[in-house]
Design goal:
Distance between the termini: 13 Å
Helix content: 40-55%
Largest sheet: 12 strands, mixed
Shape: globular
Structural class: alpha+beta
Number of strands: 31
Strand content: 15-25%
Length: about 750
């Protein structure tokens, strides 16, 4: 690095696919592609070539889809597709009619194929990960694949399933009276006027209002009864009166009266611990038996592995058990929850030992230093904008209330509303993009831009001069980096190129449960995370259960530290437990103007800058804002030293894409193939036709993938101003290096954490 201000964590994660990428090449037809590119080819000959190609590639796609591993992957994600898609295509394999039903099912299966074979995701056995490291004593790389692709599997409950079982258990009066009710996040009470989380007011009877005010997630109905009687509030209610009041409050949606199940990767432990705290009774035995039945059903799924027949049977029995014990559907609708549609999920570790050597690290650090310096500048500007937003919100509220402190809970709620509109960050991102464009300064029409980090250093230091990060999270960034090499031997020989993927701002992505469960020494990761605490505090949100938070997808960090502070939103709403004495109740904190800036006063009297307290709450709004080049009709590939900083990209109106006629697939294929060639697009690309969607693999030599792309563009054309983003696939299938024991190769990416020590 040009200056030692950035430090990489010693350990990093290698993410990759669970299916070899070369299998996707079976879905291409070079003969048909050549015929499409030949301007002298008669339409009839083109059609004949295309028909041969689509028959051959459709058969290859069905062959992929019927493999045991592929069927098992479908069973995890979309069990109905095994019969409705793969099964339908097999039943109609002899029918050559190109019906709408056939095209739709081919596209569905092709979408799954590209996901399993070409997209680097951390999900199940079709997206395993493995921890790796840099070693200065290794020249370039050491690769030692194990006998199987998967080394370790672990099946977990989604926390909503155990929460649903807890709700069912709580219907037993013998259990319920021992549960401390909790106020639902967002529910409030003032006098006898309650406010539902959706904002609806409701006037309560005096007893119900008094009980709601006493509910804190810690006190049982018996303790609340004693308290009310001692204070002579709402008369002299007995415990049955309080029980009935709690029932009404639960029915109104103001409280949760069930065991608290943390949003955790092992939620069943919390329910088991609660049941263990109950005295021996038939009710306890019934509840314990229900939990153990659910655990046994999960273990049956785990034992099935990726064998489709046992897996299908085990998943079906699990679904039946969940429905019977909880009274809820075992598979949630797509629009019901962002995460966790099934009752369980599987995480897997890859069976390979990868060590990256000095050559890889030395090639990465100089250009990555420029990238990270620019990230520091961007976070400085975004942090300033966040401070201004908080200040404005504070002053607005203080003006309405006559001055003084502002409840931090109110400030946070309004801040998160503002951050949901991306325009808050637009000026900083635009300036960021302008700076990078000035530094790189390519000529119009260039397709390959090469720069040296030493030549860019002075300009970058000027454009991106910035002070150190303003809060703990802003000093941590997580870049994804891919290695392009024509196989493992090419990598070992040093013939490689690095490719920058996403840069996740203000987040140490490796401190996440999807990775930490396989780390040989999690305490080492915690030491890495704690190292910067000497210079700044860290306040970590304890997220309650919500549609955006699940045990598997819980925001970083996963590892708990008794050196962090934890910001508690609503006890009893699925929050994880913090170390004793390290929890800060959000509703007990106050924000105040101090010397021109907003600070937060802790119960101890200590004051912290507001971003030290709420900065990590804003990480979702900043994590994906590292977009160094502005959208353009064409952006060249930009390489700094041996790091591809930006892949070649096209942004095109969907109206400009030649989609052809659905009824003439051969002509539509040829038109698109020629169009792509005329624009200089490579054979392999990724595309998106809607904002917020995942990139989709496209091989322009594949009739199947071209059909899928054209169908999506036709659909997108119904929206005004629709555009399609197309990015070169780099590394492409000819430049992957991650092997298994049989020599098959897989796409992959490295995920790193960089810490700002400036």
């Amino acid at each position: 690095m040009s200056k030692p201000t950035w430090r990489l964590w010693d350990d990093l994660v290698l993410r990759g696919t669970g299916f070899p990428v070369q299998e996707l090449l079976r879905l291409a037809d070079p003969e048909t592609a050549r015929a499409a590119l030949d301007p002298d080819n008669p339409p009839q000959r083109l059609r004949e070539s295309w028909e041969r190609g689509i028959r051959r590639t459709a058969a290859a796609l069905l062959d992929l889809g019927e493999s045991d591993a592929f069927r098992a992957a479908l069973l995890w994600q979309n069990p109905a597709a095994v019969q409705n898609v793969t099964g339908w295509l097999r039943r109609h394999a002899g029918d050559t009619t190109r019906s709408r039903d056939r095209r739709r099912r081919e596209s569905t299966l092709a979408r799954y194929a590209q996901r399993y074979h070409a997209r680097n995701e951390t999900i199940g056995f079709f997206g395993p990960s493995v921890w790796t490291r840099f070693d200065e004593d290794v020249p370039v790389a050491e690769l030692r694949p194990g006998p199987a692709v998967i080394a370790q599997r672990s099946v977990h409950f989604e926390d909503w399933v155990i929460d649903a079982l807890a709700a069912a258990v709580a219907t037993d009066p013998a259990v319920r009276h021992r549960i401390a009710a909790a106020r639902v996040l967002g529910a409030g009470i003032s006098g006898t006027l309650a406010v539902h989380p959706d904002g609806t007011p409701r006037r309560l009877p005096p007893l119900d209002a008094a009980v709601l005010a006493a509910v804190d997630g810690k006190r049982t109905a018996r303790v609340i009864t004693v308290d009310l009687r001692w204070r002579q509030v709402a008369g002299t209610p007995d415990e049955d009166d309080v029980h009935r009041a709690l029932d009404r409050l639960a029915e109104f949606g103001l409280i949760r009266w069930r065991p608290n199940i943390p949003v955790d990767r092992r939620p069943e432990r919390a329910l088991r611990a609660f049941l263990g705290s109950l005295p021996d009774s038939p009710a306890r035995e019934r509840a314990h038996g229900a939990l153990e039945r659910l655990v046994a059903a999960r273990d049956e799924v785990a034992a099935a592995g990726d064998r489709p027949a046992p897996l299908a049977a085990a998943l079906a029995r699990l679904d039946e058990t969940v429905a019977e014990l909880t009274g809820t559907a075992a598979v949630r609708a797509r629009d019901e929850r962002q995460f966790g549609r099934r009752a369980v999920y599987e995480d897997c570790a890859r069976d390979i030992d990868v060590v990256l050597g000095a050559a890889v690290r030395d090639a990465l650090l100089p250009p990555l230093s420029l990238v990270l310096d620019s990230a520091r500048w961007l976070m400085w500007r975004l942090g300033g904008r966040l401070e201004a937003l908080v200040g404005d919100l504070h002053d607005e509220f203080a003006a309405m209330t006559g001055g003084g402190g502002v409840p931090l809970a109110t400030l946070v709620s309004r801040l998160l509303d503002r951050l949901s509109d991306p325009s808050w960050a637009a000026p900083a991102v635009a300036e960021f993009q302008k700076s990078w464009s000035e530094i790189l300064a390519w000529a119009p029409g260039e397709r390959r831009v090469r720069r040296e980090s030493a030549e860019l250093a002075a300009a970058a230091a000027t454009w991106f001069a910035a002070p150190p990060a303003g809060w703990y999270g802003a000093a941590h960034h997580s870049p994804d980096v891919m290695i392009a090499a024509a196989g493992p031997e090419a990598l070992r020989a040093g013939r490689f190129e690095l490719v920058l993927g996403e840069v996740h701002l203000a987040m140490a992505t490796l401190d996440n449960g999807v990775f930490t469960w396989t780390h040989p020494d999690p305490a080492k990761l915690l030491r890495e995370a704690e190292a910067p605490l000497a210079g700044r505090p860290r306040v970590v949100p304890l997220y309650p259960r919500s549609p955006k938070v699940s045990g598997r997808d819980y925001p970083t960090p996963t590892l708990f530290s008794d050196r962090y502070w934890y910001l508690a939103f609503a006890p009893g709403n699925g929050e994880r437990a913090a170390a004793r004495g390290r929890s800060l109740a959000l509703d007990a904190l106050t924000a105040e103007r101090t010397g021109g800036s907003v600070t937060v006063r802790l119960p101890s009297g200590q004051r912290l800058p507001v971003l030290d307290v709420v900065g990590e709450l804003a990480q979702e709004a900043v994590v994906n804002l590292f977009r160094p080049l502005p959208p353009a009709a064409h952006t060249p590939r930009v390489t700094i030293d041996r790091l591809v900083f930006a892949r070649e990209r096209w942004r095109i109106s969907c109206q400009e894409v030649p989609v052809g006629a659905v009824a003439d697939e051969a002509a539509a294929f040829a038109a698109l193939r020629r169009w792509a060639a005329s624009r200089g697009m490579p054979r392999f690309v990724f595309w998106r036709a809607a904002a917020g969607t995942k990139p989709v693999y496209l091989d322009f030599d594949s009739p199947l993938f071209v059909n899928d792309f054209l169908a999506a563009v036709r659909q997108a054309r119904r929206r005004e101003d629709s555009v399609v983003d197309i990015t070169e696939m780099h590394p492409d299938p000819e430049h992957v290096w991650l092997p298994d024991a049989d020599g098959r190769l897989y796409t992959s990416e490295l995920r790193l954490v960089a810490v700002d020590r400036a």
